[in-house]
């Protein structure tokens, strides 16, 4: 196994303030030690302690030091084609509306400035947001533009805006940064964007979406997405016959993302990997014969196949709950092809099936992690992306 001793995510030098904050976070001594421990080569490495998947204090630490400081996926630009298109996302206790304003896509708090009613829910299209409680109105930039029956008190509309969060669109995906001071994401993903140039993810659209609300820690969702070791058991009738676990391999980690290759059995024709949609872009011979699992830290997940992509968009919600949307993405012109709806329906049924296989085993895993007998488990070489994620989490929690 080559190169696995490389430290993927060097921990910043711990300073006294961050050390003190770690101690005050209320996490156990076991978790403190796990965060501080140096990285083992994959050949000798184990998972984080099971408590890292069940402890609310640990989740709060992850929220503060990872989620609020990093770029988190919210959606895809294709969901907001026209000025006035919006969708809503609840994330880390905030209630957002993501809207295409005249100048750019904005992520605003959708909590009314009057007495906090959420202004909208679901996706939609509007010229302005009107509160369902007392009809205060906001334009697409989040400015308060109407407040009925407020003339008899000392109140001006001017200068009142819904709080806005920083967004960035990279390869068509919309990301938010709550702290406002993350390094720009585009440059961090430059190598990835280059490798995706022929696939043009900005030109993909969401064909269909499955919604999940699971009693599972967010890292379990990421880990199960990023390893194919479990094809041999959990997916023995779905993925294993085409994409055998033993053929999969994970690239050396990058600071901001990683990649697992899952080649199909060599004897299978390329057509066996397709669902009948137009190819996503110009593909190499290798791309035609495998699927690729991408993780952009901390939890943006994409399974790229020759003619479609499964995109999991997560909303971690406490140590033992994760909501996510499993989207099937296709090329923008795919719906124009004859038979599109039937193919999409067949693919949707397949995704329901494999996700049920994953969620079923993951909910059991989550319960096992909460037992006193549970201990860190050893990684297979096929779980390299999990070893990389543990390294990322440890490094970020020390910062
Ligand atoms: S809470 Fe929105 S107008 Fe009163
Ligand atoms: Fe799976």
Please write out the topology.
Elements: H1 16-24, H2 29-36, H3 56-67, E1 72-76, E2 85-91, E3 94-100, E4 105-109, E5 124-125, E6 129-130, E7 137-138, E8 144-146, E9 164-170, E10 173-177, H4 185-188, H5 190-195, E11 204-214, H6 218-226, E12 249-250, E13 257-263, H7 285-288, E14 290-296, E15 300-304, E16 309-316, E17 322-331, H8 340-369, H9 384-398
Antiparallel strand pairs: 1-10, 2-3, 2-5, 3-4, 4-9, 6-7, 7-8, 9-10, 11-17, 12-13, 13-14, 14-15, 15-16, 16-17
Helix pairs in contact: 3-9
The chain binds FE2/S2 (inorganic) cluster and fe (ii) ion (FE2).
Describe the structure.
This protein is an alpha+beta fold. It folds into two domains: 78-169, Rieske Iron-sulfur Protein, CATH 2.102.10; 197-398, Naphthalene 1,2-dioxygenase Alpha Subunit, Chain A, domain 1. Helices cover 24% and strands 24% of the residues. It is built from nine helices and 17 strands. It has helices spanning 16-24, 29-36, 56-67, 185-188, 190-195, 218-226, 285-288, 340-369, 384-398; strands at 72-76, 85-91, 94-100, 105-109, 124-125, 129-130, 137-138, 144-146, 164-170, 173-177, 204-214, 249-250, 257-263, 290-296, 300-304, 309-316, 322-331. A seven-stranded antiparallel beta sheet has the order 1-10-9-4-3-2-5, with no helix packed on it. Strands 11-17-16-15-14-13-12 form a seven-stranded antiparallel beta sheet. Strand 9 and strand 10 form a beta hairpin. Helix 3 crosses helix 9 (384-398). The longest helix has 30 residues, at 340-369. 39% of the residues are buried. Bound molecules: FE2/S2 (inorganic) cluster and fe (ii) ion. Residues 224, 230, 234-235, 358 line the site of fe (ii) ion.
